[in-house]
Amino acid sequence: MKVAVAGCCHGALDKMYETLELLQRRHNVRPDLLLCCGDFQAVRNEADLRCMAVPAKYRHMQTFYRYYSGEKKAPVLTVFIGGNHEASNHLQELPYGGWVAPNIYYLGYAGVVRFRGVRIGGISGIFKSHDYRKGHFECPPYNQQTIRSAYHVRNIEVFKLKQLKRPIDIFMSHDWPRSIYHYGNKKQLLKMKSFFRQEVESNTLGSPAASELLQHLKPTYWFSAHLHVKFAAFMQHQANSKEELPKATKFLALDKCLPHRDFLQIIDVEHDPNAGDSLEYDAEWIAVLKATNSLVNVTQSSWNMPEKNGLHAKWDYSATEEAIKEVLEELNHNLKIPCNFTLTAACYDPSKPQKHREPVHTINPQTTEFCAQFGLTDINDRIQQAKEESSVRGEYEEEEEEDMDSTGSAEEPSEYNTDNSGLSSINPDEIMLDEEGGDEDLSTCSVDPSPDHPPDFSASFSDIRIMPDSMAVSSDDAMDSTNEELEKSGGSKQVEEKSLNERPLKRIGGNENGNSGIKKIKRRNQAIYAADDEDKTE
């Protein structure tokens, strides 16, 4: 089947789907599935905009709300992960995944699903070492810390994914796995983006957590976005035993959605011709969720996952064949994910803007149903209970201030002692905040499918684009990739912003908003935020 893969779409759904339709008209290529590697921006209303970690002047409604309201429907099944520029309050409603609109599915903090027999996994957010070992404690209305930490990867999600034993066909992460640049045309990457050099040479560019997952899962394909540059690599994995067959991963980082940019990729993926056309649960993943349910943490306390170090009675939470069989029996061998999308917030109305709509903490019926079906903890319900109990004791605000800078538990230190989800060197294409310069820029551009400039694509991964010999990976780039075609394009990186004054917690509601305070911004280049200027600067 044909799978389209997109990088950061930044809410420009209309333009992304128009580009796919153009491919069909001009090249008779119609993908069966669209994957998006983060910064999807499922913004429903003005309150959602306030929950995005970007400067207020770059908060634009874009077009997702039309799909949320039912005005439009995605023409192709779309599966996405979260990035670092998202309506975190919306995605937080679906920690285990779910429909954000008809035909548009979010994988959750981490998740695995199946489509036509193809196993697709992903992890949302970006890596930040200071939040990695905390629980998912954040909820709206966010403050200046939690509006960022809400999208930071947690060790529990990585731990869950590392329990998987069965092969993964496709995996998605927003930030790149650390070290992946050593398996592609590194020289050309640095020629295009010289500000990556320091991190590449010190091997600190990318996520160490994603790298750990890459080594463990060894998927056939791995797709990422975040750095706004197109880059391909080929990684040959070492076998863990003599019996294990050699495996390799084809990595591709996608560019952001911009006019005339090669931001979409079409690949051919082997599938089960007898499988249905519905998105399905993955039985092993459900079994892992059940096995690790006792590890759910909704506090700011840092802690380490169980491991075989003498400190834990149990460290293997992988699913047994019996547990997987039980899941199948619970579902009567019907793994189809129900189409149970539900509106949980008022939709943006251009004729009646609600600039003062406040964000509230909402429990999504999809999550309630999912947790009840499989006996899982509803993370948002647990967060609400904890906050309500603390509020009764009158302790919550004091504990929040005391714990905000908490860095460790009584156990061993974190396995990741550096913060390298972004670049520390100066990126001429970024807008940065003073206090945290590591989360990439928010593009509010649109993608115009111009007949004169159709997007570059290929019918299979091996046809990505044959580069000239001068762009081949040399021997000192860690591998011989003469048989691998590598791509590059424009890039950029990261931005962060502050946010919101707190208000009393509401259980469920339609009005969502927050008061935002704007930090002093280092504006190195605003061109990435305006489509007209983009083509002039890159």
UniProtKB/TrEMBL annotation:
<dbReference type="InterPro" id="IPR004843">
    <property type="entry name" value="Calcineurin-like_PHP"/>
</dbReference>
<keyword id="KW-0539">Nucleus</keyword>
<protein>
    <submittedName>
        <fullName>DBR1 enzyme</fullName>
    </submittedName>
</protein>
<keyword id="KW-0464">Manganese</keyword>
<feature type="compositionally biased region" description="Acidic residues">
    <location>
        <begin position="431"/>
        <end position="442"/>
    </location>
</feature>
<keyword id="KW-0862">Zinc</keyword>
<feature type="region of interest" description="Disordered">
    <location>
        <begin position="385"/>
        <end position="538"/>
    </location>
</feature>
<dbReference type="GO" id="GO:0046872">
    <property type="term" value="F:metal ion binding"/>
</dbReference>
<keyword id="KW-0507">mRNA processing</keyword>
<comment type="similarity">
    <text>Belongs to the lariat debranching enzyme family.</text>
</comment>
<dbReference type="Pfam" id="PF00149">
    <property type="entry name" value="Metallophos"/>
</dbReference>
<dbReference type="GO" id="GO:0000398">
    <property type="term" value="P:mRNA splicing, via spliceosome"/>
</dbReference>
<dbReference type="InterPro" id="IPR007708">
    <property type="entry name" value="DBR1_C"/>
</dbReference>
<keyword id="KW-0408">Iron</keyword>
<keyword id="KW-0378">Hydrolase</keyword>
<dbReference type="InterPro" id="IPR041816">
    <property type="entry name" value="Dbr1_N"/>
</dbReference>
<dbReference type="GO" id="GO:0008419">
    <property type="term" value="F:RNA lariat debranching enzyme activity"/>
</dbReference>
<dbReference type="Pfam" id="PF05011">
    <property type="entry name" value="DBR1"/>
</dbReference>
<feature type="compositionally biased region" description="Basic and acidic residues">
    <location>
        <begin position="485"/>
        <end position="505"/>
    </location>
</feature>
<keyword id="KW-0479">Metal-binding</keyword>
<feature type="compositionally biased region" description="Acidic residues">
    <location>
        <begin position="396"/>
        <end position="405"/>
    </location>
</feature>
<feature type="domain" description="Lariat debranching enzyme C-terminal">
    <location>
        <begin position="235"/>
        <end position="380"/>
    </location>
</feature>
<dbReference type="InterPro" id="IPR029052">
    <property type="entry name" value="Metallo-depent_PP-like"/>
</dbReference>
<feature type="compositionally biased region" description="Polar residues">
    <location>
        <begin position="415"/>
        <end position="427"/>
    </location>
</feature>
<feature type="compositionally biased region" description="Basic and acidic residues">
    <location>
        <begin position="385"/>
        <end position="395"/>
    </location>
</feature>
<dbReference type="GO" id="GO:0005634">
    <property type="term" value="C:nucleus"/>
</dbReference>
